[in-house]
Amino acid sequence: MNDRRRGYHEDEFPTDELRVPHGQARRRQPVGEERRAEPGRVGPSRANRRREAGAAGRKRRGRALAVVLGALVLVVVIAGGAYGGMKLFGGEDAPADYAGPGGNAVVIEVRDGDTADQIATEMVDKDVTASGAAFYNAAVQNSAMNSVQPGFYRMKSQMAAADAVTTLVDPESRVGQIVIAEGRQLHDSADVNTGAVKKGIYTLISEASCAVGQGVPCVSYDELNAAGAGSDSSALGVPEWATDAVARVPDRDRQLEGLIAAGTFNFDPSASAADILKQLVSESSAIYENTGLVNAGAQSGLDPYQTLVASSLIEREALPNDFAKVARVILNRLAIGQRLEFDSTVNYALDTTEVATTDGDRAAVTPWNTYAMTGLPATPICSPSVGAVQAAENPEPGNWLYFVTINAAGDTLFTDNYEQHLANIQQVEPGFLASGR
């Protein structure tokens, strides 16, 4: 008996400030001194001086005209460049823009590494803004765009571009994000003693989808449960290493148990139930595979799906510092054909749960009750953490066969001797393993 209780950053697009060069001020020519009349012809005649003065004036006016014409050419070049840039974004004058204030909700996705013009394309494709140019122009003027993270955002159809940018950078616009805690199950469960409901993954997904509103329908708990029980496992993102085992699950409603990992996920809340589950299962498979799950049998002798099942037991039976020891207990018992006898597997098939279980609970034969059967349960019993998966892949060396958690702090005693195990049970804190049924 084993008793226990996508970051996104916005590229900057600096623009060089172009200025028309200032014309240089004319230098005042020094006025010549008054000449005295002298005998004989010493300088040019008065008529010649008038002709020379006229020529000098024309020369100065020519230089001034050249400066003005040069500046005019520069202005034309700048205007042409701005016009060309505006044409690039789809407008000859000001880019097309909606007046607002917008209609029904629209969900847009910001992908990891998206630039302002890529987000602008998404806005146009979803009819949030009238043109990419209008959104782009507003986006590059808002420094808060640098803080936008990958994920899904609630916008409105046909918004003014400036309003679309303001909405996008508002953290309240973020939708479709869920946090799945370690040990979470697909379905809701209630505590025997308090009646408190622990929300299942399907409930968390449904609540996140309902947060959009404004014309975007919710994905209901029942829709998710029905989709998760579908017979086409590939349409649900089930990896090849789990396909055969999932096909044999005796309760179709539980066939995706454990295949959605613990962690934080972003999903499109306007998508169908099947598409949402496919995304979450596919991303979770990648998380598990990155731990080395596919090749874990070299150390443990378990196939990938069995490793996932064992990981879920570890998650529910121990705290992280004891994960590797509990993993070893599982392998040691499986090796000699001894029943695992984990209370967590008894609780899994019950609508209400507690740390302890009753004699009647433990006697009930289910595909998960390891008191009533040898071997591993039919499915994982929760979503394990990466740490639990790694422990199942690399169990701590030892000959332990028994363990008991003795208090709410999680202190756990391990032994390979049954008599010592019975003595360890006597150290359990009074009332800790008492059933509330």
From TrEMBL:
GO terms assigned for molecular function: lytic endotransglycosylase activity
Bias kind Basic and acidic residues: ranges: 1-20, 30-39
Subcellular locations according to the entry: Cell membrane
Purpose: Functions as a peptidoglycan terminase that cleaves nascent peptidoglycan strands endolytically to terminate their elongation.
Annotated protein name in UniProt: Endolytic murein transglycosylase
Main location per the UniProt record: membrane
Gene: mltG
Membrane topology (UniProt): Single-pass membrane protein
Transmembrane segment boundaries: 64-86
GO BP term, pick one: peptidoglycan biosynthetic process
Family membership noted in the UniProt record: Belongs to the transglycosylase MltG family.
UniProt catalytic activity: a peptidoglycan chain = a peptidoglycan chain with N-acetyl-1,6-anhydromuramyl-[peptide] at the reducing end + a peptidoglycan chain with N-acetylglucosamine at the non-reducing end
EC number: 4.2.2.29
Keywords: Cell membrane, Cell wall biogenesis/degradation, Lyase, Membrane, Transmembrane, Transmembrane helix
